[in-house]
Amino acid sequence: MTAKIISGTEIAKEIRAELKQEIAELKEKHNLVPGLVTVLVGEDPASQVYVGQKEKTSHNLGIYSERYDLPAETSQEDLMALINKLNKDPKIHGILVQLPLPKHLNENEVLFAIDPKKDVDGFHPVSLGRLMIGEPDYLPCTPHGIQQLLIRSGVQTEGAEVVVVGRSNIVGKPIANMLLQKKEGANATVTICHTRTKDMAFHTRRADILIVAAGKAKAITADMVKEGVVVIDVGVNQIGTTADGKRILSGDVDFEAVKEKASAITPVPGGVGPMTITMLMINTVRAAKLAAGLI
Ligand SMILES: NC(=O)c1ccc[n+]([C@@H]2O[C@H](COP(=O)([O-])OP(=O)(O)OC[C@H]3O[C@@H](n4cnc5c(N)ncnc54)[C@H](OP(=O)(O)O)[C@@H]3O)[C@@H](O)[C@H]2O)c1
Questions:
Q1: Which end of the chain has the least Cβ crowding within 10 Å, N or C?
Q2: Is the model's pLDDT at 1 over the cut of 80?
Q3: Segment 82-141, tens digit of pLDDT
């Protein structure tokens, strides 16, 4: 069997076209323009790229965007003051603080200070608590993107054995929780593996749907999956550099070997990555509609 490739690039394009239409209608019918602010502290090159992509996507869709690029030595006090100011700004519906923050800053204190109504990254305890009880306002972007990839590719999650590798707060735990909910696009039996799991292959071989967010290149090999599995590879690992200096990326799955056994698989790049930013835009539009009392 050679797997169908689940293209996040294509699915994200489809969702963005729908969203662009919705944003145009919000402006026309309600004079409402969703607003997103990104806050970047320091000069981490990868973070600069991500923030740039978020700004560009906002612009392309018709979302108002503001960007704060703060020096690496910014104090906790100054950052907290900025968050408080943005919490009160009516043009801004969503606040995104790009992670990781420089080591001297207390990340949780900053994330917890964001008004939950503007928590478009979905990392605030209120957002995660709501997700857990099945009443989410904002789903965290990468897990939301994964769920949309499954739904829009017609993958049946109800009753499926889902195995998630990784238990981070931003990917593993929330996606496991989302797929556990008694809802459409969920209703699965979920197992979570991590570095203390005794026999990981025992679990991964049982999976109808395998979601891997470990951050270890090619950690999942063909002998660890069953025929017909659907594989969502979240990992982004740099495994080298091309002669002209471009990064060579690999997922957490040995794509070439596993695609011969899987029924469907996401590539890296072009799988989960493009979905993450798209879900941030969806959350920003939702935040604007909530603020305007439209939902
Ligand atoms: N495409 C996107 O939009 C996107 C978004 C977010 C993340 N990512 C990528 O996804 C990957 C995971 O990100 P993250 O933030 O969730 O990572 P993280 O915080 O480093 O967490 C990794 C998790 O995987 C587990 N793990 C690591 N190696 C393992 C192994 N060999 N066997 C079993 N479990 C293992 C760890 O277990 P312990 O808890 O026991 O340490 C941990 O729970 C990274 O490559 C990241 O770049 C991509």
A1: C
A2: no
A3: 999 999 999 999 999 999 999 999 999 999 999 999 999 999 999 999 999 999 999 999
Pocket test for ligand 1, best of 194, 216, 220 (most atoms within 8 A of CB): 194
- Candidates 168, 198, 275: which one to mutate for ligand 1, based on the most atoms within 8 Å of Cβ? 168
The edge-to-edge listing of strands for the beta sheet with 230-233 is 4-5, 264-265, 230-233, 209-212, 161-165, 189-193
Query: What's the rounded mean pLDDT across residues 39-44?
Result: 96
For residue 234, how far is its CA from the centre of ligand 1 (angstroms)?
A: 8
User: Using CA atoms, how far apart are residues 30 and 17, in angstroms rounded to an integer?
Assistant: 20
Q: Report the SS3 class of residue 217.
A: coil
Yes or no: say if 37 and 65 are a contact pair by the CB < 8 Å rule: yes
